Amino acid sequence: MVFFERDVPYYASHRDLTGIPGGSLHLYSEWNSIQSFARHELAEADAVIVTSYCPDGIPASRLSLDSLARLKIFYDLDTPVTLQRLAAGEPVSYVGPDGFRDFDLVLSYTGGIALRELKERLGAKQVLSLYGSVDPDTHRRIDSRECYRADLSYLGTYSEDRQDRLNRFLVEPSRRLPARRFLIGGSLYPQEFPWTDNIFFVRHVPPGDHPAFYSSSAFTLNVTRRPMAEMGYCPSGRLFEAAACGVPIISDNWEGLELFFKPGAEIVTVDTPEDVVEALALPLEQRLAIAGAARTRVLRESTAECRAEELENILSSAIHARI
Fold it and tell me: Which residues lie below 8 Å from residue 167, measured CB to CB, with a gap of 6+?
């Protein structure tokens, strides 16, 4: 496997991958500096995958589609946002004028109606979902840390289109439960965020600390961005990571969630602040049962090994279909 990534400042300061066992990672500063080498690698590739949010997505797609690679694939990691921006007439830096019609296959981090939309609006010939996953060797239950202790935690970068749900499921419960401790970990939170005296904040939680963050919480919160919640079938990778760490999860509700977790038994779904307050009062035995059931489900169905096997089967089927 050969992986190309532009070395942008944000990822450079938070990099958690510096090499690929059995493969190679190439960081580059400008597309022109790597284009010839990428063309050489593509000439003998069984498959090439271009992803959304790639800063050079359009020229990388053009190079891939013109190559001798046997399978040409686009992987959209945030399909609802892609479709929302296109519908609003906003430019999408990784989608060219021909959409996805020239790719052999389009993979999506989202399922449900998103797959149909990719065909109808972007011309994709074949679309399949390939959801997120977790590495259980990285995300697992560990000793808790006082700095991350919380009755309810939330790990995620600030996003305006999820703020209304964060207000409903964390800020408002913090006002109603002043004796409880709430914790947010993430960057880009504005000064005008509606902090309360019992909401604590960690500006950056390094990837290596995510297991400690989750393991230190009585509950952790999953909040979905509005476009993804409206489209459904959109499990965040953080959802699987938290479950693998054995923390009970409180989540907003969206269509397709039951495909990954059974509400009430493996996850607690909420619609109102009152629901969150009730969830935080659940007895310890019930919390542990929910967390244990979710962890068992994730380790059975949503590990990185499971997704790798899915991808291999998808690629194998696509190649054989072309023979």
Answer: 194
Rounded average pLDDT over 310-317: 96
**pLDDT value of residue 134:** 97
Sequence length of the chain is 323
Average confidence (pLDDT) over 246-265: 97
- Identify the burial level of 73 via C-beta atoms within 10 angstroms of its C-beta, where 0-12 means exposed, 13-18 middle and 19 or more buried: buried
pLDDT value, residue 323? 61
Q: How far apart are CA 198 and CA 276, in angstroms?
A: 16
Nearest by Cα to 229 from 78, 92, 124: 78
Residue 282 confidence class, pLDDT cut points 50, 70, 90: very high
User: Would the pLDDT of 80 be above 70?
Assistant: yes
Residues facing residue 2 across a β-bridge: 24
What are the strands of the beta sheet with 71-76, ordered from one edge?
47-51, 71-76, 105-108, 127-129
SS3 77: coil
Q: Which residues of 266-299 are buried (b: 16+ CB within 10 A; e: fewer)?
A: bbbbbeebebbeebbebeeeebeebbebbbebbb
Residue 33 has pLDDT above 80, yes or no: yes
Q: Where are the beta strands (DSSP E) in 43-174?
A: 47-51, 71-76, 105-108, 127-129, 150-155
The answer to pTM > 0.85 is yes
The phi, psi pair for 302, rounded to 5°, reads -135, 30
Q: Which residues 6+ apart lie within 8 Å of 21 measured at CB?
A: none
